[in-house]
């Protein structure tokens, strides 16, 4: 029935044959191919180092299988089998993969799942994602079987060198019955792997705690000029401080243009293993980049590889942060992700990424995705409406409980909850009842979380943060450790803050290095306070040739009529050198970069960027809350024409203005649509300062006050916030 076409001691009556030449073992590092890291875990027998291959001497159809028992499946109760792979040696195959239920110790039960496959690429691993997952109860057997139809002289089923795992590693279905392959004289295990994952995924995840985990890179350069996996204690440098991505653990992927050295063009792409696509919805990663450019790329296999698509890109300092992208539109059989870094033939900087994962939704999964309020810094005594976003990540409509809790020093101060109902994939943002912050210097532990019975992924239920009451906004630790100066006049550095509420910046403070550096140095500096969405744009106030003291904190007041910021608006405080190094002061920084994305630099004539050098700049701004409504103040200067809305609320308005000459004066209040609400003054007034106060009945919103005289017109916008 079978011809023995291999040199072996197999009896002539044996229906099986092996390859004419034994397959040479591959190196141990290659014994686990790239797919091993695709899912949370894999189940197999033997060592997966292929040694030989077996087929029917006369050709035909047979099955080769492994039997997974409760000993192997028990730890995975509640998980699912989602894919498999087998090693195919020779012959073209177009058959099925079968998952069998428990039968007896020697025969599988009913077929639970059938997955067609085709393989025309022998001497390689064949990966088959399942169209439907198979539940694991942990107490009964599951058989994973490969069906193959081949011609005589080919040997499709690869095996290791043994010894066979009795009753598990080497089963064969031939002539209507099951038997173990060792009963045919082959003491081996089939090279079959089952991939399992928890219901919530991820099905492909890399944390790099054990090295490269199947990733490769395109450049011939090695770390630091190319991507590499190093410990998160890596110092970076010598001119930048490495910051690990969020939750990086002990290792991460890193590239270091600075350590590579000036003149070395660092341009490299790190690529993941190819992963099967069972219907992923999300790709998520953590990262940090200092200056330069990094892009995240994705491509799919659908009867051939498609082109690489840029799904995210970063320029300048960004992070450390999480990022993610919806990949549900990628429906190909396989996916591959890559991180591309380019230092643009510069140096001093680097990048890192970690915890890259593809995710599929669980059936029952709710969680918390954002805490929008309170901010990390809040004003003492501020009245704050806490805000959080809660999500239904799962595949079924859910009714679940949402909580918002604030503690301080172990004492609960605020505890609110409500029940919501959300359809799959939906979220809700809840504005909770008002909470009043305490005095200056109090730290609060803020937590938003969900509770759902049967939640399959409790890891995303809770979001926590720390909030502190303070009238100062700053990133530094207060201890000057180093100082920097530009070689060019009119270049500068500064810091970005986010307004925690409607606030005035009423002063700022900045620390300069002492007279020991630079020499001869200078006691003059320029400062500008900006607003802007993505970079400093509008100058609120500037100080030119201001006198400073070196080796000390320098505090400057602002004109608060110019420094009103709304909640979430950016506050940029920038320092500029009036003269080039060494005829300038040195701007001090602390010992470590904690908030690099909020440290700004400026190169004349108009180039902005983010990123610190060796620490966070010792630059701070002081904020104050407005009184009821919005209060603004302008000091009186003789012979000037000016107006200030000193106070506006729902019940009253106070306006202060100066006239350089006696003039017919009209003072009118308008709403946001331009509708005249009230004429406050219509009379001839003498030169000098005037104040007008009256009672009103106004709603919260935007209002305009217009002063018209013989000297011109001034319009002032005011906002009632309470």
Structure description:
By secondary structure, the chain is mainly β. It folds into five domains: 16-197, Jelly Rolls, CATH 2.60.120; 207-359, Jelly Rolls; 366-469, Immunoglobulin-like; 472-624; 642-720, Sandwich (Immunoglobulin-like), CATH 2.60.40. Helix content is 1%, strand content 49%. Strands 7-6-9-4-11-12 form a six-stranded antiparallel beta sheet. Strands 14, 16, 17, 20, 23 and 25 form a six-stranded antiparallel beta sheet that branches. A hairpin with a 3-residue loop joins strand 49 (642-648) and strand 50. The chain is elongated. The N and C termini lie far apart (93 Å). Residues 1-13, 19-39 and 628-638 have low confidence and may be disordered.
């Amino acid at each position: 029935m079978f011809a023995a076409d291999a040199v072996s001691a197999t009896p002539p009556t044996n229906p099986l044959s092996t390859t004419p030449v034994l397959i040479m073992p591959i190196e141990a590092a290659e014994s686990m191919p790239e797919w091993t890291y695709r899912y949370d875990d894999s189940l197999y027998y033997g060592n997966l180092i292929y040694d030989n291959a077996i087929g029917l001497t006369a050709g035909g159809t047979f099955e080769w299988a492994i039997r997974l028992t409760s000993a192997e499946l028990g730890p995975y109760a509640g998980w699912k089998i989602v894919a498999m792979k087998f090693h195919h040696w020779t012959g073209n195959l177009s058959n099925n993969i079968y998952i069998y239920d428990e039968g007896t110790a020697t025969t599988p039960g009913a077929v639970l799942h059938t997955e067609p496959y085709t393989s025309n690429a022998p001497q390689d691993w064949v990966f088959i994602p399942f169209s439907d997952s198979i539940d694991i109860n942990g107490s009964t057997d599951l058989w994973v079987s490969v069906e193959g139809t081949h011609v005589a002289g080919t040997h499709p089923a690869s095996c290791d060198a043994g010894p066979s795992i009795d009753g598990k590693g080497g089963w064969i279905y031939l002539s209507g019955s099951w038997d173990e392959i060792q009963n045919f004289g082959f003491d081996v295990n089939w090279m079959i792997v089952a991939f399992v994952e928890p219901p919530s995924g991820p099905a492909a995840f890399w944390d790099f705690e054990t090295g490269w985990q199947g990733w490769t890179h395109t450049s011939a350069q090695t770390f630091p000029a190319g991507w590499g996996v190093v410990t998160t204690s890596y110092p970076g440098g010598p001119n930048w401080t490495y910051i690990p991505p969020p939750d990086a653990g002990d290792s991460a992927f890193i590239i270091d243009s600075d350590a590579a050295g000036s003149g070395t063009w660092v341009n490299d792409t790190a690529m993941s293993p190819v992963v099967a696509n069972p219907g992923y919805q999300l790709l998520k990663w953590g990262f940090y980049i200092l200056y330069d450019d990094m892009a995240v790329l994705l491509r799919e296999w659908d009867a051939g590889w498609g082109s690489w698509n840029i799904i995210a890109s970063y320029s300048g300092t960004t992070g450390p942060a999480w990022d993610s992208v919806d990949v549900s539109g990628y429906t190909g059989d396989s996916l591959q992700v890559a991180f591309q870094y380019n230092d643009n033939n510069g140096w001093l900087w680097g990048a890192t990424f970690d915890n890259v994962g593809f995710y599929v939704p669980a059936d029952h999964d709710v969680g918390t995705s954002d805490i929008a309020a309170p901010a990390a810094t809040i004003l003492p005594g501020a009245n704050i409406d806490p805000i959080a976003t809660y999500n239904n990540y799962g595949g079924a409509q859910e009714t679940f409980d949402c909580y918002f809790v604030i503690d301080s020093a172990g004492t609960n101060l605020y505890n609110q909850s409500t029940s919501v109902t959300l359809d799959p994939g939906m979220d809700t943002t809840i504005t909770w009842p008002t909470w009043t912050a305490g005095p200056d210097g109090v730290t609060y532990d803020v937590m938003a979380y969900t509770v759902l019975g049967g939640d399959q992924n409790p890891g995303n239920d809770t979001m926590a943060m720390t909030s502190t009451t303070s009238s100062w906004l700053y990133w530094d630790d207060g201890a000057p450790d180093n100082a920097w100066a530009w070689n060019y006049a009119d270049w500068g550095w500064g810091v970005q803050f986010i307004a925690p509420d409607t606030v005035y910046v009423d002063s700022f403070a900045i620390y300069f290095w002492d007279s020991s550096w630079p020499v001869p140095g200078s006691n003059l500096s320029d400062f500008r306070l900006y607003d802007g969405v993505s970079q400093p744009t509008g100058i609120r106030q500037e100080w030119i040739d201001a006198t400073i003291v070196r080796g000390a904190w320098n505090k400057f007041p602002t004109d608060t009529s110019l420094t009103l910021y709304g909640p979430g608006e950016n506050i940029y405080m920038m320092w500029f050198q009036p003269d080039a190094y060494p005829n300038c002061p040195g701007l001090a920084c602390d010992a470590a970069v904690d908030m690099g994305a909020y440290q700004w630099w400026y190169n004349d004539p108009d180039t902005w960027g983010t990123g610190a050098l060796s620490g966070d700049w010792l630059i701070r701004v002081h904020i104050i809350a407005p009184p009821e409504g919005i209060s603004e103040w302008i000091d009186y200067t003789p012979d000037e024409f000016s107006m200030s809305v000193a106070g506006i609320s729902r019940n009253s308005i106070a306006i202060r203005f100066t006239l350089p000459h006696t003039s017919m004066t009209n003072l009118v209040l308008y709403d946001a649509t331009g509708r005249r609400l009230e004429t406050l003054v219509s009379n001839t007034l003498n030169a000098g300062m005037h104040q007008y106060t009256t009672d009103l009945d106004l709603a919260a919103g935007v209002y305009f006050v217009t002063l018209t005289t013989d000297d011109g017109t001034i319009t002032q916008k005011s906002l009632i916030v309470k």
